[in-house]
User: What shape does this take?
Amino acid sequence: QKEVEQNSGPLSVPEGAIASLNCTYSDRVSQSFFWYRQYSGKSPELIMSIYSNGDKEDGRFTAQLNKASQYVSLLIRDSQPSDSATYLCAVRNRDDKIIFGKGTRLHILP
Amino acid sequence: EADIYQTPRYLVIGTGKKITLECSQTMGHDKMYWYQQDPGMELHLIHYSYGVNSTEKGDLSSESTVSRIRTEHFPLTLESARPSHTSQYLCASSGSRQDATNEKLFFGSGTQLSVL
Assistant: This one.
């Protein structure tokens, strides 16, 4: 079982709609969770970090964490064409390593 | 924003050559990482360091080696390059001395290595 699992997509969402990205992790001890965005040919950049159960909002982005279900999600409201990218879920595991999922490709349809 | 630099940006080299990929950061970060990423695939952690003279292997087995003699410098070396080493190598750092709890990874631009 991979430590961090994501559906690779592509996920197609109409412009202006809500994009919902999901991630599960295997290490129950994990305490830190991250969402990175990676444009084609570019390096990843951090969008959100979340450490406690519940929701965390930052502008159009909301991260949700459910430690009991070992589940992290990212919601993007009012999706824009510029949001088209690969979204990487990352988890800091019990060995203090930051492990990435394979990413979900998001395509916003104009 | 990110003051982390990787050189070279692209490298094409023949089989059997020794290569060193350079990574330097000026943010005073203690933690540094090397990830390997093939096109459309996930980032695999191959090496990490928590500070000077500290290096650990990551989850993906790699024939490369690293050193951390100075805080700002974390080079990766392949003693004998092979075609199977062709990939993108991304260096990252996190955790300044002033805020060790800051876990945000800052990535360099990457080195695209092609071994012929």
In short: The CA atoms of residues 65 and 98 of chain A lie 17 Å apart. The interface with chain B takes residues 3, 32, 34, 36, 43-46, 49, 88, 90, 92, 97-103 of chain A (CB under 8 Å).
